[in-house]
Specification:
The structure is a homotetramer.
Chain A (H helix, E strand, L loop, with lengths): L12 E2 L9 E2 L7 E2 L2 E2 H5 L1 E4 H5 L22 H19 L3 E5 H4 L6 H22 L2 E6 L18 H20 L4 E4 L5 E2 L7 H22 L4 E4 L9 E2 L4 H10 L6 E6 H6 L4 H10 L3 E5 L18 H13 L8 E3 L10 H28 L1 H9 L6 H7 L5 H10 L10 H11 L2
Parallel strand pairs in A: 1-2, 5-6, 5-14, 6-7, 7-8, 8-10, 10-12, 12-13, 13-14
Antiparallel strand pairs in A: 3-4, 9-11
Chain lengths: ~450, ~450, ~450, ~450
């Protein structure tokens, strides 16, 4: 096992819920069967290179607060390789099977376009070897189309065609890299695909640009035979004033409008959901109802703060609700639970990274166990089935099967007694959830 | 002219911007031409029966604070007739050509279903005569599917099929009433079409119910030959935890998903936009870009408060932005600007209703004048055209016309210089808007 | 035991956490000792007359959805007595020792001022007997200074002196009633004490009015020898645009500014905290740090909705954090945990009231057990103590004890090494909390 | 006149409201008398070094997008001097009389503490000469206690006493620098004075630390005879989860609690107000009512975004409301209107800085003109006076002068008719404001 950057840390073990060891799993037991799959198969955890390897603690008012041993090398390529080494060591010690990256996380920009392309290829080779030797896999790759200032006004939706072309070329290379590494998905997060002010914006033109941009990627995917799932990650705003992929429904509308719906699923992030005014489970439910819940960015936000805090998930209520939706749709397919989360700016030690991931993994393991039990017991599902049962007969059945028009409906209504509504029993259902927590 | 409930008030006149008379228009001059249409033709104002005739000042913590002379009659039908009389007097004195209503605003519920139906017919007859004698027209009708407690758990999306049928029958009668009165549109606002908790909700079933519900209405419309435009009014929440028609994009997605898109346009409300986390102009722009901006509920919210305050529109910036979008799409067609706004709970006098409408009408008249001038001067449009001009040639043109694939784009990029991004000039553009205000 | 309005319900029993009986406590075991007090002594639960006896399910868009058997009597006094009977039956069956009321909840307004006063006296007599026969006590009383439309523009802060006087007289009677019933506290919630628009408001005058208003009450309290604690309940807004008692700190400032600080403590409500942009525990912590945490309105809000949803508390994280603060200050003294919470509008059955209270009581019982264990184990407190330990020696000690001025501090700094900051360990601490949940 | 970094730009002239020149003032006419003072005397504009000279367009997702000619020098001291030169050139060309800075904006950190101190002294000398030669003055100085990662966990409220001491020494030098430059005020913005999680925080200890920290500064101020006004700038959060100076009222409470109230006034920022859930004018009104409105950070936020966007002020409604409050308290004394605002990240040209300031200055000049006219016409003040007039006689007068106790008030109420409430006329008042806009 790799042992260079996290020397003080042994592989994290499952010790059960009574363990007092902060560096052990209390609930996540990788090979434990829950239903017909192991926990690892259900949860498909992934470490985010972006935050956990590259995060520096910088915020809008302050300089980097976190120093990482893997960033010491002076030569950018050496530094990138060491960072990749650290990533795989972290993955192994956590027992996480997947990782995710942006192109610019793993390989430094060069002086010229070609140099940048070559840098990426160099590091992809390095990662490939590490994957082979460790068995760790790539959940998804993506391109960073927001950090470089040329993307200040958008990438696919830049008013500058050259920038759009530049972004498209970058995406091509990121897809190539993802394919080379056997990535199971490829993600688009349009961090600057939006507008700052309508005063200088042609909204429809930008939407059409974005559609073209994605069609280029779809065509290229087919051409090269990349079989991973394309995913779009909605977010309402930040850094832009408005982002075109505001939330799940908005994104699904866009994909339908521009004939892209067959090629994409959604990557739902908890904190992006709440920034859009939705609960995490709402966004998961909307995506799932459309058959489009492809993957999850598993973090949490602070609902009293108005920006993406990207905290590690710890709320058992949220992980339970999320796992109920995921279990009901029979898992995430090629997707997974990616910890798109960063340690707090004051959590400056390497060990904080470990605490953070343990906490997130245990929180989802608990959510899985609880959700599985709730589904098995059918308490909620029986209640819901009964609640809608009037649609299985009489006028309900007729309406739903298209066998009654408004005149007939009115006739039925005018002859019937007044409808009687039963209690929704929200409090009892909330109590039931609480009784499963533990 | 009717003169019973607003005896102290003469018809409001245009007196120009230097008038100090609070009961005169300073900007709204009905017959003044702006471009090729009169102000009245551009703005198509409508008084909302719901708020202005029926509003009582009740809020969630307090009893009605406003007493209206037209609510004195004891017999419900007499009261309804007097209220209708008051509406037309108000319309005439304001010089507003349109009004809008919910079925339950204008006609009281009866003991039985049939009685309720008959009550509505009685008042529709009364309104028809008033329309004839005054020339006032009906902008739209709608059904109140939220006030009656049987709709506590939804109307079209009620888990109770009987309730859904009841709602459908109610909609049939409301469409009949709207047709009878020559209504130019019919609106659906799904105030309870949403959920309180996912714990007792089958989200997909409810969406399918809603689709069936709307298809029933579409079929009926065709059958009876009602030619008005069907409109849906998005709102994110309140009173429900979540409403299915969250915002414009969400609603457009729903309409596409369920093959309803050809039969509906959107009625955008300013305050619903802001509750969904969008600016008013954003929602107008999204609807307009989709060719679906059908009508406007012209009010304003308080962005620091989390509920629908439904205040009369007074912010010239907002009315200007709104009119720019409306002018660019060449008007609202059969739609209009409906004052879905209520006087404050402490504005207890009848005259406050007059102040409120004068303020709203003047604010939109100013918005119209400013927007027209800005468009005529082409300051913004020239800037925008230039900003996107790189798409008219070279790689931009190729991409947008589908004549380059990713390989070609990359080749072009690798041979080109680095892209150069021009300033977005937001501050200058904001200053230009300010220079037109006045 | 009373047995008229909740006939189907026996007294709720503690059955332990493995019980599947939804009508049993899983955690709340009244007489169980936790530390040196019983659960009942720690938690001092109270039922809110306002919501649980008087709530009708009305919301801003809909009529009452909930019918209660105790509201059937036609005569207002009979109805009020039956409602009081129902309250005590509910209290007994839940095993709750306290209740709270507004004057207008328990006694109907009369035609004249004197009649209203007499109505209150009549019902107070009735309540007194019920208290005697059941042993239930009054946690606090208060006056409803927001429902009657004369309070539309404020009560103590009304611009109309007559209204202010009217409100003052009402408060006098409410204090009298509270004293008569042995109320342990008296609460002020200034639901309309704020403004709608600064355009018509003299903010300073209104603050001075409010101060006079409270001084009148303080003087009266002394005069009549009422020994209960006066409490103010902060809330930022709703129904008003702005409320003067925005949050704990704002209220403490007001009390200090007007020499009222010695006579008041705060009643912190969870949902009011979140509407003000604070977490529940923040407001508790601020009040407690000032020695002013007097009582708690134990409910929860929905952070994605912008109004007071007043839901029953069920989130174990929140109840744990709350109980940690309360235990650290050695309890709430004469205060308690009042369920200022209402069943959802769709929870239309009487049994829903029972489910709701069981859920709230169990949630706080769990919070108590967890918080007690955390405090006993000293995990967090040891961490915190160590974190601030540098203030126990050297320059830290000197500064805190006022023994160093800026020149000396600078001298020390200029001679010292650069400071070294230790990790804040937020993720580990969050994991520790999770390990106690269960 | 300096002419090096803004060579293409001449001094901005007043050309009146019909000018189409984007590089001219339309309303701000420095020497125009408004009442008994010139516009310059009323408005006391200040350029913020922080944003306008040092801003790079960096945001949390992207690298610097803005390059400034004055940042080209390699040597940090040369760069700092050139930046100061650019500042004064900008000030002169805008005709702005004041500037503000953080210590770290104007002078680079050195290797050692002493080097840092010396760097500041060097640049202060340079600034002093520029002030002398141009007549520009220093509105206020402050210390940046948030950028350096040692302040990650607070400065005055750091759990690390060494950090607190380090911050105190830094403040000493910043006060020295401010005094040396004749600064008229000194500001404290506690950007990291708050907490990230209560789990590791001793809230009361941190508040006491902060009080000690400020007392050290107060004592030092007296000792050295610095006569500028001390100001605190409230902000609720960001970057911290919670900031102790949440809003005006919270800050005033803190100052009172720790006997600091006599030594401080408030510097109110528009965008901080809205992040705290208040309108800009609310915070100004609260501070002014307490006699504590000392200065203003004149910017604007985006109420639909949850972070500090720090945009230049352009909304005439807001500048009007602000100037009404400022005029009523007879100006800001030694304070001013500091443009704590940054050009958008896409506004990458130097000229955008000019547009931005022109827009802000014109917006406040218009606000001044409108507010002055409204006050002169007494329309609002007469309305308000009449609204509260019942406090000038009878029971109102008695209550306010402390001459009636609750018994007497009740007696009066029981003999009087029911109170009659007059309309608050909000809509009419809003229309009046609109009639003055223009």
């Amino acid at each position: 096992m790799l042992n260079k950057f996290f020397k003080d840390i042994n592989q994290i073990q499952f010790e059960g819920k009574n363990s007092k060891n902060p560096l052990a799993f209390k609930y996540y037991d990788k090979d434990q069967k829950v239903g017909d799959k192991t926990m690892a198969e259900h949860l498909r955890f992934s470490v985010a290179f972006w935050h956990s390897l590259m995060g520096s603690g910088r915020d809008i008012f302050g300089d980097p607060s976190i120093k990482r041993a893997w960033h010491n090398a002076k030569d950018p390529i050496d530094k990138a390789k060491e960072t990749m080494d650290a990533a795989f060591e972290l993955l192994q010690k956590l027992g996480v099977d997947y990782y995710c990256f942006h192109d610019r996380d793993i390989a430094p920009e060069g002086e010229t376009y070609l140099q940048t392309v070559n840098n990426l290829k160099t590091i992809v080779e390095h990662a490939k070897e590490l994957q082979k030797s460790t068995g760790v896999k790539l959940l998804w790759g993506t391109a960073n189309l927001f950090g470089n200032p040329i993307y200040s006004q958008g990438a696919g939706t830049s008013p500058n065609a050259h920038v759009m072309a530049f972004a498209a070329a970058q995406v091509k290379n990121a897809i190539d890299a993802t394919k080379e590494l056997g990535g199971e998905n490829y993600v688009f997060w349009g961090g600057r695909e939006g507008y700052e002010t309508l005063l200088n914006t042609d909204l429809k033109h930008e939407q059409e640009q974005m559609a073209k941009f994605l069609h280029l990627a779809v065509d290229y995917k087919k051409e090269i035979g990349f079989t991973g799932q394309f995913l779009i990650e909605p977010k309402p705003a930040e850094p832009s004033k408005h982002q075109y992929d505001f939330d799940a429904a908005t994104t699904l509308y866009f994909l339908k409008e521009y004939n892209l719906i067959d090629y994409f699923k959604l990557n739902i992030e908890a904190n992006h959901a709440t920034l859009a005014g939705h609960s995490f489970e709402h966004e998961l439910a909307v995506a799932s109802a459309a058959g489009k819940l492809g993957s999850v960015d598993a973090n949490r936000g602070d609902l009293l703060l108005g920006w993406d805090t990207d905290q590690f998930p710890t709320d058992i209520y949220q992980t339970t609700m999320a796992m109920m939706i995921i279990l009901k749709q029979n898992g995430l397919g090629s997707g997974g639970l990616n910890f798109d989360a960063k340690v707090r700016r004051s959590s400056t030690d390497t060990i904080d990274l470990i605490h953070a991931h343990i906490g997130g993994m245990d929180a989802f393991a608990r959510g899985l166990l609880i959700a599985h039990k709730i589904i098995e017991d059918k308490v909620l599902s029986d209640f819901i089935e009964k609640r809608y049962s009037s649609f299985n007969s009489e006028i309900g059945k007729k309406i739903m099967s298209g066998k009654a028009d408004l005149r007939e409906v009115e006739k039925w209504v005018s002859q019937a007694e007044k409808p009687i509504l039963e209690s929704g029993r929200q409090e009892m259902l909330e109590n039931i959830i609480n009784s499963y927590i533990c």
